[in-house]
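Lay summary. Proteins are chains of building blocks that fold into shapes, and those shapes determine what they do. In this project we predict the shape from the chain. Here is one chain we studied, written as its sequence of building blocks.
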Amino acid sequence: MNIIAWAILGLLAGAIAKAIYPGAQGGGIIATIILGIIGAFIGGTLYTLLTAGTLQLTATTLSIPGLFVAVIGAMVAIFLWGLIARNNDV
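And here is the predicted shape, written in a compact code that computers can read:
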């Protein structure tokens, strides 16, 4: 998938995940895109692990099922980022 498709998928997945996930996450449009791209990789990797039983770093495609997996991955990324940021504030 080329970089423009990754940016579009990242923007969509990050925005949807931020809207669904409770609490305030902060960050602007660039943070949302990066969060969505990371979420696409997390979601794609988890999907491959659950369906094929192998651990491969894969991203989802720009499709409805791919967007769903990327949103779930972005929500995992938001959760992990919250854990890291909370530990640094203490």
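What the prediction tells us: The chain has one domain: 3-89.
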